[in-house]
Amino acid sequence: MSESRNGGGRVELVSSLSDLIVSDVGVNVQAGQIVGITAAPGMEAVWRAVAEAAYRRGASYVDLWVFDGHVKHSRLTHAPLHSLAYRPPWWGERYRSLGALAGAQIRLAGEPALGLMEDIAPERLGIDMMPRLPETLEVTHARQWNWIVTPGPCAGWAARLYPDLTEAAALDRLWEEIADIMRLGEPDPAAAWRERFAQLDAVARRLTALKLDALHFQGPGTDLRVGLLPGSLWQSAGDETAGGIPFTANLPTEEVFTAPDPVRVDGHVRATRPLTVGGGTVVDLEVHFLEGRAVEVSARQGAGLVEAMIATDPGAARLGEVALVDAESRIGRLGTVFSETLLDENAASHIALGAAYPDTVSDAGSRAQINESSIHIDFMIGSPEISVTGLTADGGQLPLLRDGRWQFAV
Amino acid sequence: MSESRNGGGRVELVSSLSDLIVSDVGVNVQAGQIVGITAAPGMEAVWRAVAEAAYRRGASYVDLWVFDGHVKHSRLTHAPLHSLAYRPPWWGERYRSLGALAGAQIRLAGEPALGLMEDIAPERLGIDMMPRLPETLEVTHARQWNWIVTPGPCAGWAARLYPDLTEAAALDRLWEEIADIMRLGEPDPAAAWRERFAQLDAVARRLTALKLDALHFQGPGTDLRVGLLPGSLWQSAGDETAGGIPFTANLPTEEVFTAPDPVRVDGHVRATRPLTVGGGTVVDLEVHFLEGRAVEVSARQGAGLVEAMIATDPGAARLGEVALVDAESRIGRLGTVFSETLLDENAASHIALGAAYPDTVSDAGSRAQINESSIHIDFMIGSPEISVTGLTADGGQLPLLRDGRWQFAV
Q1: What is residue B3's predicted lDDT score, i.e. its pLDDT?
Q2: Rounded CA gap, B267 and B50, in Å?
Q3: Backbone angles phi, psi at A161, to 5 degrees
Q4: Contacts A86 to B, Cβ<8 Å
Q5: A9 — phi, psi (to 5°)?
Q6: Are B121 and B275 in contact, with CB atoms under 8 Å apart?
Q7: A97 with B74: Cβ contact below 8 A
Q8: pLDDT score recorded for residue A91
Q9: Integer Cα distance of A252 and A399 in angstroms
């Protein structure tokens, strides 16, 4: 911990991470593919290694989009309120074109400008959704591209996560945790992931087979029933494009997830981790649901941000995803709050406001019922203290998670 | 020189430079305008200050494109030759949209990855023209946007320019030279530029009034006649969009320039400074012209790069610009070779292969004759040792530049 990894060790980690990202357990870059990378300033080492690894696998072009939170901060400070919903059309067109060309898309997650937006009113933050674009959901739902969200460790993010360490020590610590989470210390990281994928897949098949009518989350501050659809299909990491390219959309991934019934969500839920969205942080979020809609939102910090988000469109106040995470998750065991959804959502069970993934239902009837929206915001509601019970249509109750452990053999 | 400027002094320079760039002597950002910035990793401090200054002037959105030479290096190392001419269509569309929206465009010039491409064959370098895009010329020629090319000082560039200095001292040195060149040390930098613009404007009007038939460059290794068109109009810095927004397209600017006759360029020319293009460097370039075409190219380094460039399209081997620079240029006096066209071209008289600017001729007849191409590559042919003489249609000879000084009152 005392020695900086700026030398050989860091270079090896960057290279190992990048190889994993482009490999067949990651986004699975194909020869001849155009590969998009979305990243933030400070992630240069990672995006360059990912680009190099993609070209080595035969990518025909690697196209980088760097979005800078500091420029967004100037916008939020100075630009008139009415202009904040504007999104330059070319970024959405870029995603659509990448989809039409059957490209690959890699988003390096992590927030180098974490905390930067603290002086901005949450209402303004909630209107400016850049760099989130609805076109990414369009292309994803049409299964045109193989895509991945995966961590891009960088100094700014590390400094905010571990404020008591020096900048170099904080970055070392972040890399250590990311290396653990990404299983880079295993003799064969890709093989370790294949094994975990097999476990998650077994859980997903088991849950689908149970044909549950609803889930019941219970614990401190939470008593929430989430209805499921007759066709709700539990999914784990593995995905496939329309053209037949298999890929893993999130790495790390520790979750199984499905589409809830957007009109049958009732009760009260308390977030178990802070939520970082659009550069703002929401602390101690509580949401009350009635017949599927989030009708009341409160928080110790950032409630306005959530209120602005759920006003985006009619589906934004309803659920598009419910996901279960067991205590095997390395992220959950670390206990670090990364302030980054990709990592935090894989620490604990969670729900998402906004769009559902069409492939989380099995039939056209259910597909017509799942939630639609231009947003998709995950927030964590699980912990070892929260029990999850499956409810069957005939009134049966099946314990699913207790103390973070599956209550059936996997 | 011994004290690093990372403290207050640097911040002031960044702020002063950025204010100048967006001001009415620069790109002249308008309230409500969308502003594009093109930059490279390492220029964060400058692009953030420019974005902040643009929003303070009322910009409605500032849109950043960061192009990374290291990713390009991976492409040039690994991608198949046939793929290297590919340009993702969305970048050209972004420029076209910015033009259609009557936006502003700021390119921060400077090469943080200078020297990076030394291990790439010049022929490959010459095919991959990214991030140069023909759409920028389209939008510029249609006068849809107010645009500027201006320096973006950064550590990587500084380290290559002053290899004997530490990284911090090199960056200090670069900022000192840029501050001098940009007249940031003047009590009112904008007023100092207005005065220089007035001088250059007077020279341009004088040259246009002379109605020259050709220019004759003579000196060591150079004996070149460049024919002019009946409508050749000498221009200086000031420009204006179709919508009537005045702006300065290059800052610094020390040149007067016009469109040559693309079929009347004859003789031999030796470049007086190295030329950096597409990440490669061309040293001791010599070009022989016959009836307007570059028919023979030689160089101590990088001749293949120029040969690939002039094969781009039929106009790429002909001249689109001839520019005269006097010894009043602060860049010429510094003597530093910046390996960046914006600065080096304002150190010395130069010519450009490729497209002409339509507003450098006065009538439709001449406009039909000027050169067309998708490229525009300036290279320096002037120095105090090179004399420039104006030739009139009736055989008269008028000395224009001797020892770097105008031979008429300005």
Answers
A1: 40
A2: 44
A3: -75, -35
A4: 60-61
A5: -60, -45
A6: no
A7: no
A8: 97
A9: 26
- Residues forming beta bridges with residue A402, ordered by sequence position: A405
Which residue's structure tokens are 């370039």? B285
pLDDT at residue A3, rounded to an integer = 40
Name the residue among B174, B269, B176, B287 with its Cα closest to residue B223: B269
Give the one of B48, B80, B86 whose C-beta lies nearest to A70's C-beta: B48
Interface contact flag, B77 A71, Cβ < 8 Å: no
Cβ(B271)–Cβ(B380) under 8 Å?
yes
Beta bridge partners of B301: B283
Name which of A47, A51, A68 is nearest B64 (Cβ-Cβ): A68
Q: Which residue has the tokens 């403290």?
A: B7
Q: Burial level of A209, CB count in 10 A (0-12/13-18/19+)? A: exposed
In the block, residue with structure tokens 């000879």 = B397
Mean pLDDT on A77-101: 96
Task: Give the model confidence (pLDDT) of A210-255 as tens digits.
Answer: 999 999 999 999 999 999 999 999 999 889 999 999 999 999 999 9
Q: Are A274 and A257 in contact (CB under 8 A)?
A: no
List pLDDT tens digits, range B222-233: 999 999 999 999
Rounded mean pLDDT, B106-116: 87
Q: How many residues does chain B have?
A: 410
Range in A67-81, B178-192, B334-348 the model is least confident about: B334-348
Q: What is the pLDDT of residue B8?
A: 53
Residue A180 tokens read as 């653990």
Q: Residue A4: what pLDDT? A: 46
3-state percent breakdown (helix, strand, coil) of chain B, nearest 5 = 35, 25, 40
Are A66 and B61 in contact (CB < 8 Å)? Answer: no
Higher pLDDT, B17 or B336: B17
Helix axes A44-56, A8-22, angle to 10 degrees: 50
Q: Could you give the CA distance from residue B41 to residue B113 in angstroms, rounded to a whole number? A: 9
Do B234 and B205 form a contact (C-beta atoms < 8 A)? Answer: yes
Return the exposure string of A314-348: e unless at least 16 CB atoms fall within 10 Å of the residue's CB, then b. Answer: ebbbbbbbbbbbbbebbbbeeebebbbbbbbbbbb
| b (16+ CB within 10 A) / e for B276-311 | bbbbbbbebbbbebeebbbeebebeebbbbbbbbbe
pLDDT of residue B1: 31
Ordered structural domains, chain B, with CATH: 3-187 (3.40.1830.10), 190-406 (no CATH)
Among B371, B372, B376, residue whose Cα is nearest residue B350: B376
The DSSP output letter for B52 is H
Distance between CA atoms of residues B379 and B321, nearest Å: 10
Chain B residues touching residue A56 (CB < 8 angstroms): 78
Reply yes or no on whether the pLDDT at A2 is more than 50.
no
CA-CA-CA-CA torsion sign (B367, B371, B377, B379): negative
Predicted TM-score (pTM) of the model is: 0.88
The pLDDT value given to residue A8? 53
List, as one string, the DSSP characters of A280-307: EEEBS-EEEEETTEEEEEE-SB-HHHHH
Tell me which residue in B41, B83, B93 faces A90 most closely, judged by beta carbons: B93
Q: Do B48 and A71 make contact, defined as CB atoms within 8 angstroms?
A: yes
> Which residues have CB under 8 Å from B173's CB, separation 6+?
B1, B158, B161, B162, B165
- Pick the residue with more confidence: A322 or B410? A322
State whether ipTM is beyond 0.90. no
Burial environment of residue B323 by CB neighbours within 10 A (0 to 12, 13 to 18, 19 or more): buried
> H or E stretch including A197?
helix A189-210
Alpha-carbon distance B197 to B195, whole Å? Answer: 5
- 8 Å CB contact between A274 and A281: yes
Ordered DSSP codes for B238-279 = EEE-TTS-EEESBSS--EEEE-EEEEEEEEEEE-SS-EEETT
Tokens read off for B63: 């849109």
